[in-house]
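TASK: fixed-backbone design
INPUT:
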C-alpha cells in the first residue's frame, strides 16, 4: 500500500523548549517519534539523534532488502537500529558535559506490505484506529504501569499520579536497551497514531478517538490533537504522527 504521513510538534503552554522529535521516511514506510529527557536542552539532542539514526539505518536496510516478506528479519532490523541509536546517544551523554544524563523514549512503526511492525521504549505510544475503535498497540514502560500491572493501583489512579512520567526503559541511558517489538495486520482503512505523553497526559483515549472520528486530512487531524492537548493545559511538549494508506475510505 502507498501511504501518506503527517506530523506535528508543539512546545505546549508550559515548557520553553521542545524535547520531542519525529522522523518520517515515506518511501520506506517508516515513522519514528521520540520524547527526550535530560539536562539543559540535552533532551532535544537525544530525541533528535535517536530519530535520525533509526531513520537512516532502517531506510538503508529497506533499500538493501526490498523483499519485506520476512517479518522476523524486519523486527530484528528494528532491534539492531535502535541498539545503534542507543549506543550513539549514550556515548554522547558520556563524552559531552552538556549532554550528561540525557536519554529519550522512542516509538516507531514500519509498514511492510500487509504487516504493521511496531517497536517502542518508554511511554511514547502507538495506537490504531479501525472500524471506529481506538486500540492502544503499546504498553508503557513506566513505574506506574508496573504498579497497575501488579494490582497496586488502578488505571484511574495512575492517570492522576504525579509520578506518571517515570519511565523504566529509555534510549541512551544504559549500555543495552530492550526494544519491545510486535507485529499487527495492516488493513485498508487503518489509521496509525504515534504520540508522546504530552498528548496522552492531557487527553484521554476517549477524547483522542473523538478527534479521529471527525476524519479529514491527516495534517488537520494532527493539528486538532495538538489543540486538544493545549486546551487541556499543554503541560508538556506534544508530538504526533499519523499515517494511513492513500486509498483509505476514511478520508
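OUTPUT:
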Amino acid at each position: 500500500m502507498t501511504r501518506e504521513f503527517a506530523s506535528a510538534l508543539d512546545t505546549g503552554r508550559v515548557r520553553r523548549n521542545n524535547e520531542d522529535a519525529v522522523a518520517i521516511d515515506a518511501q520506506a514506510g517508516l515513522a519514528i517519534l521520540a520524547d527526550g529527557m535530560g539536562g539543559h536542552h540535552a533532551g532535544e539532542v537525544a530525541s533528535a539523534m535517536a530519530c535520525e539514526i533509526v531513520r537512516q539505518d532502517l531506510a538503508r536496510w529497506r533499500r538493501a532488502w526490498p523483499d519485506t516478506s520476512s517479518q522476523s528479519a524486519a523486527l530484528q532490523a528494528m532491534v539492531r537500529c535502535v541498539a545503534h541509536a542507543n549506543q550513539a546517544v549514550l556515548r554522547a551523554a558520556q563524552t559531552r558535559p552538556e549532554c550528561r544524563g540525557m536519554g529519550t523514549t522512542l516509538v516507531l512503526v514500519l509498514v511492510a506490505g500487509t504487516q504493521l511492525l511496531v517497536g517502542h521504549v518508554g511511554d511514547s505510544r502507538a495506537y490504531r484506529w479501525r472500524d471506529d475503535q481506538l486500540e492502544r498497540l503499546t504498553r508503557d514502560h513506566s513505574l506506574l504501569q508496573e504498579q497497575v500491572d501488579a494490582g497496586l493501583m488502578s488505571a484511574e489512579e495512575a492517570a492522576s499520579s504525579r509520578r506518571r512520567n517515570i519511565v523504566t526503559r529509555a534510549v541512551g541511558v544504559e549500555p543495552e536497551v530492550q526494544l519491545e517489538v510486535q507485529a499487527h495486520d495492516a488493513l485498508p482503512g487503518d489509521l496509525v497514531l504515534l504520540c508522546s505523553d504530552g498528548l496522552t497526559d492531557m487527553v484521554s483515549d476517549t477524547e483522542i478517538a473523538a478527534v479521529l472520528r471527525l476524519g479529514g486530512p491527516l495534517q488537520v487531524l494532527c493539528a486538532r490533537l495538538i489543540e486538544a492537548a493545549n486546551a487541556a493545559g499543554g503541560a508538556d511538549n506534544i508530538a504526533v504522527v499519523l499515517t494511513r494508506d492513500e486509498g483509505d475510505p476514511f478520508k
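COMMENT: The mean pLDDT is 90.
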